[in-house]
């Protein structure tokens, strides 16, 4: 069954604006990860947040995790045209670390 | 140097044929995976090998058979191809995850787009 579900499915913003996308999941997790996929390419790891962490930053990325609500958010600040991609959350369940489960992603389009 | 490379990048074939996709990683990772991405971009795990041993085998038709000759290679063979097999197949690798290892951050290949006519 699908573990992570991203919201919204698609997001269109202008350069310089912030982009926020959310991920909800169903079971207890060990960690949650965000990946980016450019068109026609493989997924690239962006950031990992562990179940005992609430917030993490990496450059223009900010990730939050609320385990009580089983949800995470990814914020991209000051977006650029190069941020145009699909963004996926992936969860590593506490009882099955090796099985990283992905959602269907949020497609982000940043227009100049 | 490409970290995870898979071939071919594109594969167009007729129903009923048998085809293989090859994957190699030069990262020294212990674990390799095959994921299938459908037309709606949903990514689903198919198989995972750790040091040549099968550790994850999701509900995948028997027509799909992974083979890992060594920990740097994981190939996927598909028999009797069907229209529904059309998808992008991604190979990935990671250090061993779990209580005895670190978090399983995946490095993906560029994907192999399979089209079954």
Detailed description of the structure:
- The complex is a heterodimer of chains A (112) and B (117).
- Chain A has 112 residues and is mostly beta strands.
- In chain A, 0% of the residues lie in helices and 58% in strands.
- Chain A is built from no helices and eleven strands.
- In chain A, the strands form two sheets. In chain A, strands 2, 4, 5, 9, 10 and 11 form a six-stranded mixed β-sheet that branches. A five-stranded antiparallel β-sheet of chain A has the order 1-3-8-7-6, with no helix packed on it.
- With 117 residues, chain B is an all-beta fold.
- Chain B is 0% helix and 54% strand.
- Chain B is built from no helices and eleven strands.
- The relative contact order of chain B is 0.32.
- The model of chain B has no long low-confidence stretch (mean pLDDT 91).
- Chains A and B meet through strand 4, strand 5, strand 9 and strand 10 of A and strand 5 and strand 10 of B.
| Low-pLDDT windows of residues of chain B | none
Q: How many beta-strand segments of chain A? A: 11
Number of strand elements of chain B: 11
The overall pLDDT average of chain B reads 91
So how many helices of chain B?
Answer: 0
Mean pLDDT of chain A: 91
Strand content of chain B is: over 45%
Query: What characteristic shape of chain B results from the CA principal axes?
Result: globular
User: Structural class given helices, strands, pairing of chain A?
Assistant: mainly beta
Give the N-terminus to C-terminus distance of chain A in angstroms: 38 Å
Decide which structural class fits the backbone of chain B: mainly beta
* Largest sheet composition of chain B: 7 strands, mixed
DSSP helix fraction of chain A: under 10%
Cα shape of chain A: globular
> Which percent range fits the helix content of chain B?
under 10%
Question: From the alpha-carbon coordinates, what is the Rg of chain B to the nearest angstrom?
Answer: 14 Å
């Amino acid at each position: 069954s699908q573990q992570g579900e991203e919201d919204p499915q698609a997001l269109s913003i202008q350069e310089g604006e912030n982009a926020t996308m959310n991920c909800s999941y169903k079971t207890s997790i060990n960690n949650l990860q965000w990946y980016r996929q450019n068109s026609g390419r493989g997924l690239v790891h962006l950031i990992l947040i562990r179940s005992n962490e609430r917030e993490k930053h990496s450059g223009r990325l900010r990730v939050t995790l609320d385990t009580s609500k089983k949800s995470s958010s990814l914020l991209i600040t000051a977006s650029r045209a190069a941020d145009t991609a699909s963004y996926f959350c992936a969860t590593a369940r506490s009882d099955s670390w090796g099985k990283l489960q992905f959602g269907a992603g949020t497609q982000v389009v940043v227009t100049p | 140097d490409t970290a995870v490379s898979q071939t071919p990048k594109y594969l167009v074939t007729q129903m009923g044929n048998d085809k293989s996709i090859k994957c190699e990683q030069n990262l020294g990772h212990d674990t390799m995976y095959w994921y299938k991405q459908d037309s709606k971009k949903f990514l689903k795990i198919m198989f995972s090998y750790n040091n040549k041993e099968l550790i994850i085998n999701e509900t995948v038709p028997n027509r799909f058979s992974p083979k890992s000759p060594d920990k740097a290679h994981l190939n996927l063979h598909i028999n009797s191809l069907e229209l529904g097999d059309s998808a992008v197949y991604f190979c990935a690798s990671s250090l061993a995850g779990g209580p005895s290892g670190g978090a399983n951050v995946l490095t993906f290949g560029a994907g192999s787009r399979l089209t079954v006519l």
